[in-house]
Amino acid sequence: MAITTDSAPVRPVRRIFDGRTDPDSPVLLRAEAGAPSGDPLVDGVFDTLGAAWEFFRTVYGRNAIDGRGGPVDAVLRAGDPEPGAARWQGSRILIGDGAPALEAVAGQFTAGIIQHTAELESYGQPGALAVSLGQVFGLLAKQYDLKQSAEEADWLLGQGLPSSATAATGSLADPARFGQAAHMSAYEETSGGDGGVHANAGIANHAFYLVATGLGGHAWERAGRIWYKALMGYASRTTNLSAFRYATLGAARDLDWPTDAVAKAWSTVGIDR
Fold first, then answer.
1. CA dist 223 to 24, 120, 235, 259, Å?
2. Sign (positive or negative) of CA dihedral 112, 201, 213, 237
3. b/e string for 114-143 if b means 16 or more Cβ within 10 A?
4. Residue 164 and residue 100: Cα distance in Å, rounded?
5. Of 9, 129, 193, 225, which is most buried with the most CB atoms under 10 A?
6. What is the dihedral of CA 178, 184, 187, 191, to 10 degrees?
7. Residue 81 Cα distances to 104, 119, 194, angstroms
8. What is the pLDDT along the chain (273 residues), one digit of tens a residue?
9. How many CB atoms lie within 10 A of CB 223?
């Protein structure tokens, strides 16, 4: 898998490790240009990492998680997270004993990109925004893979994970259905745990959904480009939801997309300024 540029092909550098014995010193199972391992989980994750890499490279010009073509590492069977799920851990993606869906891997790919760019705090509104960005770009990678338009997509999160079978665990179209806030009036103010980042991520999720369906077409090409440019060009460590609204408005202007659709979406979720 390679993306050809004017100079030379750009290829992913994937490395798959086994963390069962020692997650801190995992054993290399497969590396780029190596033969398939014969282990369905190893080879499946290798292919899924490639699909996530290709999505970000082709659509947004991002060369790997660090933006410089660095390795994309996954540690399997480390006991954390649960089977079929994925979690970003500073420099690698941890994967349980089960093949994760593309949206889960792309979501953690996004977490790594955030670490290398805006470095959003993991608490409060910046944390909610970080969770939302992972869910948004995870779904965009899924839609890109399926070649779905914003109108064709179901906008559901979590389908295909072993823990949820075929049931969804979230929705950008209807966050409240799954216990997430869809409006600032339902924002969860809490000082405990993670500051309600997962519940509150629904606000930014729904704003994205409204922009994507309002602009129509392929969401990764339209709303996705606005959100990605806002993250890369405007967001910083303490960016809250209001600040990200301004960031998306600025990104839309930069890209010559209608800002009224963006402003209307944020207003619908209770963020007018």
1. 38, 21, 16, 11
2. negative
3. bbebbebbeebbbbbbbbbbbbbbbbbbbb
4. 12
5. 129
6. 150
7. 12, 22, 17
8. 555 444 456 899 999 999 988 878 899 999 999 999 999 999 999 999 999 999 999 999 999 999 999 999 999 988 777 877 899 999 999 998 888 999 999 999 999 999 999 999 999 999 999 999 999 999 999 999 999 999 999 999 986 555 444 578 899 999 999 999 999 999 998 776 678 999 999 999 999 999 999 999 999 999 999 999 999 999 999 999 999 999 999 999 999 999 999 999 999 999 999
9. 30
